[in-house]
């Protein structure tokens, strides 16, 4: 399968490359790797962003618009081919419009206390983990008027945590890590004593031991530094 067929926008091309790399890698056992359908209303980025601004009051910035993709989902689920490794990955990106309109965190996880409940009303998930069932989600914080949304990470053990990434940087890093479960912790204020980080730390170490050799065109130095700081 050639994933680049029909790609139009830059992030679609980058995603196609990453999906192809996953699909072609003998070190990974791949259960799912695909682009979803393209809805007619999402064919043109200008139309999609105009709708989000006019109907929902969210005037996304040029930085966000650079990462537009038309597919309803971009999805992959894989495990290491070596059964002795704990290396698992999942990407389940949802189209930006669908995330803003439908994927409301508070409808599935209301939160505790007034402050948390109000926060959850502003958070919309755009990358989640339905196949692994890890309960991890990446979220946009998009109250009306937002041009450059904050990016948060949700884990059922620790709740919602702000990330040290913007939307574009999140998507770039997602492709570098191939969705390795828990990579987002490396961009949160978390460490070895946190209940969510401990179960994924070995897999992250294995990713950073193996991926630079498997995917030498990517730079893993920032991820390596962040992992070392947390171990």
Task: Quickly describe the structure.
With 231 residues, this protein is α+β, with helices and mostly antiparallel strands. It has helices at 10-24, 45-56, 62-65, 96-102, 113-121, 167-177, 198-214, 221-230, and strands at 28-35, 73-80, 88-94, 123-128, 137-141, 150-155, 159-162.
Any descriptors?
alpha+beta; 3-stranded antiparallel sheet; 4-stranded antiparallel sheet; 8 helices; globular; about 230 residues; single chain
- The number of distinct β-strands equals 7
Mean pLDDT: 92
Point out poorly predicted stretches.
none
Q: State the shape.
A: globular
Proportion of beta-strand residues:
15-25%
Helix-strand sequence: HEHHEEHHEEEEHHH
How many H/I helices?
A: 8
Largest β-sheet summary: 4 strands, antiparallel
Indicate the percent of residues in helices. 25-40%
Radius of gyration: 17 Å
Strand arrangement, largest sheet?
4-5-6-7
Structural class: alpha+beta
Distance between the termini: 39 Å
